[in-house]
Write a structure and sequence with these properties.
Elements: H1 2-24
Length: about 45
């Protein structure tokens, strides 16, 4: 019974987090037009 209660509490917390993020909306601002380089470019 405790496991069921713990699962219900966790599910409710996750659902509340999703609703909060949805209500706030996307962050303001723009993305950078330049790509992020994650490795050193290869030399030709």
């Amino acid at each position: 019974m405790r496991a069921l209660l713990a699962a219900a509490v966790g599910l409710a917390a996750a659902f509340a987090l999703v609703l909060t993020v949805t209500a706030i909306g996307p962050p303001e601002g723009a993305t950078s037009p330049r790509p992020l380089l994650t490795s050193v470019p290869a030399h030709p």
